């Protein structure tokens, strides 16, 4: 057996382990991009209030799937806020995610 053949599988396994560790540590250190709070709050608003006017730029199904775990948590949809009443989805998403009964972390 050649030396290259003997070290190939362990080298591939080592590289895959390093790549997996880098992906996990990077994901834990990153934060949201600029519109995740809008999508998450829109999905939750679809479930709880049937407010399909919220964030109509993207299909509803993906947002509803992303927000589905929130249905089992104690979070509130701030429908009394000015952002909700004025249909400002960016401000509504910020209020939902960062000023809720459950921490955004």
Architecture overview:
With 105 residues, the chain is mainly α. 60% of the residues lie in helices and 0% in strands. It is built from five helices and no strands. The longest helix is centred in the first third of the chain and has 27 residues, at 3-29. The model has no long low-confidence stretch (mean pLDDT 87).
Which helices and strands, and how do they pair?
Layout: H1 3-29, H2 36-49, H3 60-67, H4 82-85, H5 89-98
Helix pairs in contact: 2-3, 2-5
Helix amount, in percent? 55-70%
Q: Roughly what fraction of the amino acids lie in strands?
A: under 5%
Tally of alpha and pi helices:
5
Please give the number of β-strands.
Answer: 0
Structural class: mainly alpha
Indicate the overall shape. Answer: elongated
| Cα radius of gyration in angstroms | 21 Å
Distance between the termini: 52 Å
Order of helices and strands: HHHHH
* Main beta-sheet annotation: none
Give the low-pLDDT segments.
none
Q: What's the average pLDDT?
A: 87
């Amino acid at each position: 057996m050649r030396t290259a053949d003997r070290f190939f599988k362990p080298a591939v396994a080592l590289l895959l382990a390093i790549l997996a560790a880098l992906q996990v540590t990077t994901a834990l250190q990153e934060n949201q991009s600029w519109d995740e709070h809008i999508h998450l709050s829109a999905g939750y608003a679809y479930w709880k209030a049937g407010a399909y006017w919220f964030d109509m730029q993207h299909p509803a199904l993906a947002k509803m799937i992303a927000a589905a775990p929130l249905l089992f948590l104690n979070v509130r949809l701030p429908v009394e806020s000015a952002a909700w009443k004025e249909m400002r989805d960016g401000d509504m998403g910020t209020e939902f995610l960062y000023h809720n009964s459950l921490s955004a972390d």
